[in-house]
Amino acid sequence: MPEGLPIDFDQPLNGTMAAYTQQVVICTGQRDWESRIEDDGKGQSWGELVRGLKKLMGRGGRYADPFNNVLVSNSSFPSSSSTSTASAFLFPGFKYIPSISVNVSEEQNAQTDLATFVQAFLLPEQLNPMQDSLPESKRAKLTRKPELESSFPGAIDIQYSPVVLICGHGGRDMRCGVMAPVLEKEFSRVLRARGFSSAGGDGNTADSPEHAHIGLISHVGGHKYAGNVIVYIPPGMKAGGSPHPLAGKGIWYGRVEPKHVQGIIDETIMSGRVVLDHFRGGIDRNGDILRV
């Protein structure tokens, strides 16, 4: 590890994952980013997507909601070649959206701009009971509108491909920057040995039982627990021919070293068991937080 940046082996990991409702994993084609991801990707559609989401959902934004914490992450997955649209994965929604307009219109009813994406996929289906006193118009504005999903006909449901996200944000903290490439290589090696004919982030396959997505992502909190790994198990995945016990869930692990990768793959991805020694937290398909 870099001098002066030790790994914290003392604090218990369980409960160190910050609660969130969804993670937007933006495809940038880069393997590292500026410390503040909204400062990166100037003139590129993926950078505009980051900034647009922060503008719409961040403090003071049109859809700001303290009870709807959407985690926005950059990833190394290949980016869109368009200058006006970007691509992203959604978890635990388990979707890949290949074309998202990055235009943020000041008009509330603009056709298919970034606000359409937010309303279709990122707002909560039900508001927190503490928001019952809000005016009905405000409540309606902050509630998801699933009928708008039809504005994204290219969206793909991730049913079978497991997803491994590794924090590799060296521009933020070199502990993850050093650890991530080594973990990425080991996850790819072991997953291929376990029967996944393609394991990585080449962008050629969105969903297949033979493919596993492996990508580097930006800061998710807890660099002192590097390596930080998130494993998303898709809802249609099987374990030994039976329904996967962790189907539709995301499991966060910390203090992961290359020697731990085989165990995480065999236990969590292949068998559906949580490795408690590395468990930071988890999320289910409904956005509820998992604790053990």
TrEMBL record:
InterPro entries: Aim32/Apd1-like, Thioredoxin-like_sf. It holds the Pfam family Suc_Fer-like. SUPFAM superfamilies: Thioredoxin-like. Gene3D superfamilies: Glutaredoxin. Belongs to the AIM32 family. This is Altered inheritance of mitochondria protein 32.
